Amino acid sequence: MAHDDARETIIHNFARWAAASSARQGSKIRGRDWYEPIDKIRNDLDALLSNKRPSKDKFAKWHETVVEKLRDDTREAVGWAAKILNMVTKVEIYLAGLGHPELKRLIHPPIDNILIDVVIQKCVKDAGASGAKKSGSCARRESPLTQSKPTRSVWK
After folding, report:
1. 9-41 pLDDT tens trace
2. Residues whose CB falls within 8 Å of the CB of residue 131, separated by 6 or more in sequence, listed in order
3. How far apart are CA 134 and CA 115, in angstroms?
4. Which 3-state string (H, E, C) describes the chain?
5. Angle between the 78-89 and 3-21 helix axes, to the nearest 10 degrees?
6. Which among 113, 126, 118 has a CA at the least distance from the CA of 155?
7. What is the pTM of this model?
8. What is the spatial distance between Cα 36 and Cα 41, in angstroms, rounded to a whole number?
């Protein structure tokens, strides 16, 4: 197996594992049972990662189509199908650096609860220090950031 082929196999396997791991609670399908449906969309992923510059509209249509394929194949809710696809694209695009650089601006952002907590705390701290209800970039969004007890719920 050539180096590039081995690397692509490792990336794909890690992407499958990460996506399947994200479906531990609430999903009807769990763990490795996601692997086959993810493998079935491999050609769709390869088309996305072909290094062609994507447009926002084409990406949105691609995403909708692939989510529908996952949903139809698994009989899982659209939200779970989208979550699985988003996890796969995060690994392949953000972590592995595959595809056109513009894809990073189109896919679901790689935000986790730790980052969200840091942003919330910084905005609350900044707002408290200035005596204002809103501060800097936090002022752009009406959210729990401007309340006394912020929560993550609006960020999900």
Report:
1. 999 999 999 999 988 778 888 889 999 999 999
2. none
3. 19
4. CCHHHHHHHHHHHHHHHHHHHCCCCCCCCCHHHHHHHHHHCHHHHHHHCCCCCCCHHHHHHHHHHHHHHHHHHHCCCHHHHHHHHHHHHHHHHHHCCCCCCCHHHHCCCCCCHHHHHHHHHHHHHHHHHHCCCCCHHHHHCCCHHHCCCCCCHHHC
5. 140
6. 113
7. 0.70
8. 9
Residue type, 96: A
Q: Hunting for tokens 């707002």 — which residue is that?
A: 127
Of 1, 38, 4, nearest in space to 18 by CA: 38
Structure-block tokens of residue 141: 């969004």
In one-letter notation, the amino acid at residue 142 is: E
